[in-house]
Backbone:
């Protein structure tokens, strides 16, 4: 065991010397920051106000259903209705930039209302306006349905109140967290490929072979160094997330899952590096293979990103735990496969 | 006689084919096929990560059971079991936690969707869907454009598009001749679940549930397909370049009569062609056109250019892997983020992927969009290769240094005092790429936050671009460490930079008059007015002054450089703030 640790330590030291680990962490930080930004942006598009902006969307309302529609528009905290008697005046207000949207509502003889909405094109504010208008129109639709309920054979279900302020939760658990779990996994396998094929290409592997270390010990040590980084990084992310108030219900299972997938990736990467002597081919095969494996994983009855999300939210089912167990088994079997490969052939 | 670089290219292909043995090739192809085959399925149910994440306790007899059952993120469980939400009757109990609120929100939207399905079966359509909406996107003069663009005032184009059709439905919406008049509703074809909305130009129509901000999700997922091959290609390309540097393997090529640029062109060509070929295949498969391939090939150039530099800087394969991952992530973000706003905001034109997304949504691609998306990308790629060729020589190829030191080497390799202006001008593509990305990233924030951040970011980007190569020149002894040299180098750099900036303005005047991002990034001075002449000349003075400031620091020491750079950024911010406030 000590020999293996020596190899592992040497690997980690070389990573530290090149400061590549820092770069890896920087990459992940960037990905996390960037995707969080993305979601803040997208949430801002769909739920103005949620991102901390205090923009109020002003809507010019005209038409013979103004009295019905305007109060509904005014109901929203981020909306303000300005009523106009003439449609032209409403449009003129839009032209002058005094409102963000002009809405003309006509009550038809059948009792329904047709709404003609005009928004300026090609500006970010428009997106806010459209999102707010959509919300207002839906509320208006509910109200009209209730008023016309005698004419309906089936009654719509009352829509439960949505408290709001939770737009980021879904994203954090279903996208960000899986991303932070699987990115270290992917990188670990890539590092495993590099650390073996680089020695093979430079010819320094021979130097290692003449040391008292056995071949399995060398490979074990290198694999250990790459694999151990995965749960360490993921643990760091979990701590960081919990500092930001994101509670992870079952951190141990998440770490176990990350470790297992990391070992699978490292086993795959090591096997590729041993089988395909040229580093470029090995790395290419690894990236494409990892991509395919991740894509294929999404077709499993319990897909891995979903499993991570469920473990974190605390709504894991039997299937989720089965996936964790299965991943651990695959990791053990996979690494045993690498060892079998080593004993079968004199390497390269 | 074939050009000599083609021989290098052929050699690169043959050697690559030899090294990549048949099994490996078969494996790659198989995996690629699997990914390709799975992509459409994945694209169609892109929501899987949130499947069944919130258990909801609801009895089988409850009317809410069906909406919960049919919702993606919700999953019904028997009452009494552990659940996020509990429904009894019409009462919903949610814990006051982020998860509880998120689940309650999901429930509300599930019930809304359920109601719409229920009403579909009603005979009395007027009562079932009592509100029908038609939403039009029109060009408005002097609009209430929010976002970062508003700060620099729209004084240039007020009220040219007067309301022509006040009486009823005839309304010449969107004829204002803007470069983005095709935006708006065109996206609704694949905006999230806009079923039943018909689209005619900039119109969205349907029930209130169909009214959504345009978001071309499907097209974005497909556009991602163009990026995947690039990320794979740069792995192989970077390895090939680094291979030359291991055990002095590349020496043989260096001693041939081939010039360095011929070697580099030859080595790069097969990968560029492969990228373009794959992009063409993807384009055929997903129904994008020639322009998409063109735009993606510019992006491919930038991917390869950055990877080329990375492979020249890296000390080992491991380091290269991390560098290429950084490049992958960074450039993917650069291509992807702005494309999200394809139908929302002209800022999207920054990314070549926008061309792809636009074509996929069936809208025509404007010349301006094509130029803005391709030009900075392609130019930046060329400058990357230029820098790399500069250090593609024995003394740099076979030495090991930390990547930042190598980068300094590359910047300084062929720098002379006279060329400072040229270097300043050549930094423009990168500045543009970085600034456009900064705008794309920051414009969603509230104005009060985004404008100061943006002013700071733009100033910092420009100051670093103008002075980093000067610093490199002093560090590597290419420039004499005297105040006189520093002043001259700084002035030249600033003037070169300002000239480069003006060239960009010309492309804007030709093809991109309505791009407000242009007004904010490259030149607040683009605004017309009585002070036009002053504004035309002021940037020269500013850039020369700040670059000289940084240069004076750079000639002394690293620390002095950083200090002077900070001062230059502050000066620049002050200038920007003055321009913005006086013009607003």
Residues:
């Amino acid at each position: 065991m000590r020999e293996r640790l020596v190899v592992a330590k040497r690997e980690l030291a070389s990573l530290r010397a090149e400061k590549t680990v820092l770069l890896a962490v920087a990459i992940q930080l960037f990905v996390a920051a960037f995707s969080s930004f993305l979601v803040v942006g997208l949430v801002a598009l769909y739920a103005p106000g949620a991102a901390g902006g205090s923009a109020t969307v002003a809507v010019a309302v005209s038409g013979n259903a103004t009295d019905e529609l305007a109060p509904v528009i005014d109901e929203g905290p981020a909306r303000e209705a300005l009523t106009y008697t003439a449609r032209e005046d409403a449009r003129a207000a839009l032209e002058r930039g005094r409102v963000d949207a002009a809405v003309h509502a006509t009550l038809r003889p059948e009792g329904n209302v047709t709404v003609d909405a005009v928004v300026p094109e090609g500006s970010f504010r428009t997106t806010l306006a459209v999102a707010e208008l959509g919300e207002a129109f839906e509320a208006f639709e509910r109200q009209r349905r209730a008023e016309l309920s005698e004419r309906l054979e089936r009654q719509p279900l009352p829509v439960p109140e949505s408290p709001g302020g939770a737009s980021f939760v879904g994203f954090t658990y279903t996208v960000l967290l899986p991303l932070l779990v699987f990115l270290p996994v992917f990188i670990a396998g890539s590092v495993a490929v590099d650390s073996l094929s680089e020695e093979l290409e430079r010819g320094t592997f021979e130097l290692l072979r003449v040391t008292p270390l056995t071949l399995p010990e060398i490979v074990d040590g290198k694999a250990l160094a790459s694999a151990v980084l995965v749960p360490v990084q993921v643990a760091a992310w979990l701590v960081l997330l919990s500092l930001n108030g994101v509670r992870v219900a079952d951190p141990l299972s998440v770490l176990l899952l990350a470790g297992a997938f990391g070992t699978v990736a490292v086993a795959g990467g090591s096997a590729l590096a041993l089988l395909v002597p040229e580093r470029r081919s090995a790395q290419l095969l690894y990236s494409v293979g990892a991509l395919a494996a991740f894509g294929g994983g999404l077709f499993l009855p319990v897909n891995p990103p979903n499993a991570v999300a469920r473990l974190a939210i605390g709504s894991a089912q039997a299937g989720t735990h089965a996936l964790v167990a299965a991943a651990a088994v695959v990791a053990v079997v996979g690494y045993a496969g690498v060892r079998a490969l080593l004993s079968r052939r004199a390497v390269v | 006689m074939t050009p000599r670089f083609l021989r290098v290219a052929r050699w690169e292909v043959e050697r690559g084919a030899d090294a990549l043995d048949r099994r490996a090739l078969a494996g790659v192809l198989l995996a690629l096929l699997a990914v390709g085959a799975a992509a459409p399925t994945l694209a169609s149910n892109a929501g899987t990560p949130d499947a069944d994440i919130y258990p909801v306790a609801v009895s089988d007899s409850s009317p809410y059971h069906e909406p919960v059952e049919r919702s993606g993120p919700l999953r019904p469980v028997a009452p009494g079991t552990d659940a996020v939400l509990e429904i009894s009757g019409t009462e919903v109990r949610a814990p006051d936690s982020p998860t509880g609120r998120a689940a309650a929100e999901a429930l509300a939207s599930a019930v809304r969707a359920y109601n719409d399905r229920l009403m579909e079966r009603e005979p009395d359509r007027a009562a079932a869907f009592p509100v029908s909406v038609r939403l039009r996107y029109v060009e408005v003069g002097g609009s209430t454009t929010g976002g970062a663009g508003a700060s620099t005032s729209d004084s240039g184009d007020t009220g040219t598009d007067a309301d022509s059709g006040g009486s009823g439905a005839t309304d010449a919406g969107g004829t204002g001749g803007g470069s983005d008049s095709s935006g708006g509703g065109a996206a609704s074809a694949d905006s999230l679940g806009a079923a039943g909305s018909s689209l005619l130009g900039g119109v969205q129509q349907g029930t209130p549930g169909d009214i959504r901000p345009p978001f071309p999700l499907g097209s974005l997922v497909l556009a991602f397909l163009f990026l995947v091959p690039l990320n794979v290609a740069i792995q192989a390309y970077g390895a090939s370049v680094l291979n030359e540097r291991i055990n002095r393997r590349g020496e043989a090529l260096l001693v041939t009569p081939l010039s360095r640029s011929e070697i580099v062109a030859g080595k790069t060509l097969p990968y560029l062609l492969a990228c373009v070929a794959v992009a063409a295949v993807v384009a055929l498969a997903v129904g994008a056109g020639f322009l998409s391939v063109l735009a993606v090939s510019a992006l491919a150039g930038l991917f390869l250019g950055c990877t080329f530099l990375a492979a020249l800087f890296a000390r080992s394969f491991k380091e290269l892997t991390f560098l290429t991952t950084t490049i992958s992530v960074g450039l993917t973000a650069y291509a992807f983020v702005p494309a999200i706003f394809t139908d929302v905001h002209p800022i999207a034109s920054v990314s070549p992927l926008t061309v792809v997304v636009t074509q996929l949504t069936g809208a025509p691609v404007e010349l301006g969009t094509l130029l803005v998306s391709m030009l900075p990308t392609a130019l930046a790629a060329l400058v990357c290769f230029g820098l790399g060729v500069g250090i593609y020589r024995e003394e740099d190829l076979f030495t090991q240094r930390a990547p930042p030191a190598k980068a300094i080497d590359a910047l300084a390799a062929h720098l002379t005092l006279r060329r400072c202006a040229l270097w300043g001008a050549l930094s423009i593509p990168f500045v543009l790429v970085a600034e456009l990305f900064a705008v794309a990233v920051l414009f969603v924030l509230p104005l009060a936050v985004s404008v100061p951040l943006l002013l700071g970011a733009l100033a910092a980007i420009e100051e670093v671009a103008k002075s980093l190569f000067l610093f490199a020149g002093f560090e590597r002894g290419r420039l004499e460490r005297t105040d006189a040299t520093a002043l001259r180098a700084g002035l030249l750099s600033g003037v070169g930079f300002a000239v480069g900036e003006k060239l960009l303005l010309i492309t804007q005047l030709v093809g991109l008059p309505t791009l407000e991002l242009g007004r904010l990034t490259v030149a607040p001075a683009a605004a017309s007015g009585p002070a036009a002449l002053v504004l035309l000349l002021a940037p020269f003075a500013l850039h020369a002054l700040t670059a000289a400031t940084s240069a004076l620091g750079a000639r002394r020491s690293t620390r002095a450089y950083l200090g002077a750079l900070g001062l230059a950024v502050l000066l620049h911010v002050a200038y920007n703030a003055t321009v913005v406030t006086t013009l607003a």
